[in-house]
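Thread: Newbie trying to understand structure tokens

Hi all, I'm a second-year student working on a class project, and my supervisor (Dr. K.) asked me to get a predicted structure for one chain before our next meeting. I've only ever worked with sequences, so writing a 3D structure as a token string is new to me. If someone could post the tokens and maybe explain what I'm looking at, I'd be very grateful. Here's the chain:
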Amino acid sequence: MEWAELIIHTTSAGEDTVSELFMEQGASGTMVENRADIPDPSKPYGIWEIIDPKLLEEMPKDVLVHAWFEPDDSFPEILSSLLKRLEELRARFPEFGSLLLEQKSVHDENWSEVWKKYYKPFYIGKNLIVKPTWETCTPRPEDRVIELDPGMAFGSGTHETTGMCVGLLEDVIRGGESVLDVGTGSGILAIAAALKGAGSVLAIDIDPDAVRVAGENVALNHVEGIVKVQQGDLLNDVSGCSDICVANIISDIIIRFAGSLIRHVKPEGFLICSGVVQQREAEVREALENAGCRILRTEHRGEWVAFLTGRAC
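---
Reply by user tm_fold:
Sure, no problem. This is what the structure looks like when written as tokens:
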């Protein structure tokens, strides 16, 4: 079978919005090519030597978001809708780049493997290695390995926001805490929390496919006794409070649900938020503070921002 592959040229600021746009239109999966997701060989990541140094040279200058659709009778309407939405985004968000749309065909047996080309083992946090299930690596004695098959579009862990969330989790987990992971995707943050010593983790996602993928990754890393994965619309199906809540989502959702997020945190607990582009840092900070959060720390990495907060009173 032939699939229709659509590719949109954007920037790091626009990649999440473009990915969401594709999924809203019924894409069977998405994949992002971003030079920023490849470890810098000049920095001591520790395992760059297992990655071909030519990989970075081959990466496109633009951020490319790929998506795959069945070329059935509904496809022309999907294409027309995408072009209209891209015009709207282009007018509203110049920081999203050209938003040029390309189209080509790809064989059924190849499309699901295309995105794996650039996904290699890498360090996240101080001593966690994220290792794709199809790759090999040799960890140091102090390292913990997260085996991950992210599925299409559910989070490989390479994004700056994920790295900042893991770093903040490392700083606040002392052992035995209850953790709530909102919008878990592939489950990487939930698994990282478990490996770092959390006592219990509830991982939630609205997407049933993400819930399935996260559940598979939890089992793959043998943390089923700690991590529970469930489908839910943000926090509507969650009762009680956790020691730590982590929400690596998008700015609009954090702004809208900041009050609900902090209400699910114990008085002495922590809320970690990321998925925030720098252009919206002040807006998100204001929403968090208005919701009763006290900003304890702000992290910046590339074009992205993460907040560590607690209750204001």
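A couple of things are worth pointing out once you decode it. Residues 75-92 form the longest helix (18 residues). DSSP finds nine helices and 14 strands in the chain. Feel free to ask follow-ups in this thread.
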